[in-house]
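Task: sequence in, structure out. Protein: Phosphoribosylformylglycinamidine cyclo-ligase.
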Amino acid sequence: MTENPRNSYAEAGVDTAAGDLAVELMKAAVTKTHGPEVLGGVGGFAGLFDVSALTSFRHPLLATSTDGVGTKVAIAQAIDKHDTIGQDLVGMVVDDIVVVGAKPLFMTDYIACGKVVPERIAAIVTGIARACSETGTALVGGETAEHPGLIPPDEYDVAGAAVGAVEADAVLGAERVREGDVVLALASSGLHSNGFSLVRHILAQKGISYTDRSDDFGGVVGEVLLEPTRLYTTPLVQLLADPVLGSAVHSLSHVTGGGIAANLARVLPVGSWAEVERSSWSPLPVFRTLAEMSGASLESTEGTWNLGIGFFAIVDADAATAVATALTAHGIPTWPAGRVSFEPRDLAGFEQGAKGVDGGAVRLTGAYSA
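Result:
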């Protein structure tokens, strides 16, 4: 029977050769994340990671997290800049691992696209690998899937999952929080990877293109918005390993979807409350610009954007200054933003728990610093 080339996989829109080239282009960056624990190299059906080091743990627990970057990828696609979106993915996934006190071990990624453009896929994965190296995480595998007819040729989405390990008696969480603990705020680098649906809505209403140069934004709009997510893992892992300062950290919170109060409330115990003082920091210019464009107050966006706080650390009051100093020395500006209390009070106006967690109560109070 004569073969019909019109019924080939390539004719259907899937270019396996392009996929192979993408792997070759990213291979060196991925391999740089591999230590002796990674077996088999790049390209296997499954990644292998030697966990024999966990035999030294008294009671090892595995921690896992999965996430994506959300609609921030639309901006990367609009200005054809794809080398930072991978760091956003690692930030969203790996920085969730350290919240429970775990050290990340390895990560895998998944890219779904309409058409494999090898250089674009390689730029995304190189960004992932670079951030994995910075956080001490091995990138042990991944998948690029071409979906012609389902996803437009120049569009893609990214997701990932990571695994870490922690001693059972070292797990951080609400149960460790005590009366008088200080809430430390760790600065964000910008929007990170949350609230971009609102960002895109505001810019569309104003008729602003991502390729426009704007004095209000201080540069090309899309490039400013693509400021990559700050990575907190390495400074926090090093802090937790300190025998004195590490024991002073009671719980951590990653400020992602849901905003400031909700994410802090998730890591406080039931019956506790905290007020975050807005006067303790000044929201970054990108947040002020977007709020002004939308005609909204900064306060009204606190449940959507991080406004300049990417993480919280709830720590023993006696060690708060030392912890803040240590994190700031690692390049993450850190400051006291509130205290935890269990004293009875009217909690009207507080957010209590979030995302299925029946946690503590949090509200933001006062006015932002200019």
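The mean pLDDT is 91.
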